[in-house]
Write a structure and sequence with these properties.
alpha+beta, 9-stranded antiparallel β-sheet
């Protein structure tokens, strides 16, 4: 489900800063993990979750080459990535990355047990500028062009209750990922409700609403930003008109 642009870029400066400000969600078998930016360029070593069999990598197929493409193109690219991983027998789990306000969001996958070189090669093949790799040295942003670590400035945040509910919801509804369209989630709810007892039906409906809320959150935030920008622009125009009118009267 495309919800904007995962911040990123290969050049130094502002574009790397967007990557460093990224928030990353991982939906691992052991439960959801939320990684948030820490102070500085390199945070203290951050070990992967207990039970992870090797490094954890995060890759997206969205917006290759740093260019924003259509929602349908991103959905196709993600499906192709998942099909490729399944064909190659690579274990993967849902993941997503976005800005701090969770307005610009891209779906990806978390790969377990894939080394950094292989992850970088996959990211490069997908037209990505960078990937995330979580090893015993920490959670790192790695440049796909050079293979160099750009930053290790992330830390694990306490799992928000809403994220825990979203994680429970997609599993209870039998979805492969929480980041699906509402139509897909609703179809899954319909299937899950067949033969469900009243208490279970209420639980499933409540979980579906969690997915819907998570789906709309970035859209609502983007709309609020748009309205605020329009309000500020209109105020500036009004001030300009009033200033011009006063100048004419002088």
């Amino acid at each position: 489900m495309e919800r904007g642009e995962w911040p990123g870029g290969r050049v130094a400066g502002v574009r790397w800063e967007r990557y460093r400000e990224a928030v990353v969600r991982l939906h691992l078998p052991s439960g959801p993990v939320l990684l948030v930016p820490a102070a500085g360029v390199h945070a203290p070593p951050l070990l992967p979750p207990e039970g992870a069999d090797g490094p954890i990598s995060v890759v997206t197929a969205h917006n290759p080459g740093g260019r924003v493409v259509s929602d349908s193109a991103n959905r196709r690219a993600h499906r192709d990535l998942v099909a490729r991983l399944d064909r190659d027998g690579v274990s993967h789990h849902p993941a997503a990355g976005g800005d701090r306000d969770w307005v610009h969001v891209e779906e990806g996958v978390a790969l377990i047990g894939i080394d950094t070189d292989a992850t970088v090669a996959l990211g490069r093949d997908l037209g990505q500028e960078a990937v995330f790799v979580w090893t015993r040295e920490g959670f790192s942003l790695v440049d796909c062009a050079t293979g160099e670590v750009v930053s290790r400035a992330w830390t694990v945040a306490p799992t928000p209750p809403a994220l825990a509910r979203v994680n429970e919801a997609y599993r209870a509804l039998g979805l492969a990922t929480p980041y699906v369209s509402l139509a897909t989630a609703y179809a899954a709810l319909d299937r899950a409700l067949v033969g469900a007892a009243p208490d279970e039906a209420r639980r499933l409906n409540a979980l579906y609403l969690e997915l819907a809320s998570d789906y709309y959150r970035p859209r609502d935030a983007e709309e609020a930003r748009r309205r605020e920008a329009e309000r500020v622009l209109e105020a500036e125009r009004r001030a300009f008109r009033e200033a011009r009118a006063r100048a004419r009267e002088a």
